[in-house]
Design a protein that fits this description.
Distance between the termini: 47 Å
Number of helices: 3
Number of strands: 0
Order of helices and strands: HHH
Shape: elongated
Number of domains: 1
Oligomer: single chain
Structural class: mainly alpha
Length: 80
């Protein structure tokens, strides 16, 4: 069992629903990448690590968009 892949997958799912502004997404991305490399070296299944990578990348992009929108709102450049 690839512990890094499992941890990266679980944290990437959790990061979609937590407002930590990308911190948990970045941790999930790092853990999933380590799990993916470890799975490639040991010639194990890479599915869980790959899905963790994809979900964490999406979560990082969403967190960046959220941060940009919040910054624009606080600067008064967003008419919300």
């Amino acid at each position: 069992m690839n512990t890094y892949a499992v941890a990266g997958f679980v944290i990437s799912i959790a990061s979609l629903f937590t407002p930590f502004f990308g911190l948990s997404s970045t941790i999930a991305l790092a853990l999933s990448a380590i799990g993916f490399v470890q799975a490639r070296v040991e010639k194990n299944r890479k599915g869980l690590a790959l899905s963790g990578l994809i979900i964490s990348i999406v979560s990082v992009v969403l967190a960046c968009a959220e941060n940009i929108l919040l910054l624009l709102h606080y600067l008064g450049k967003l008419p919300i």
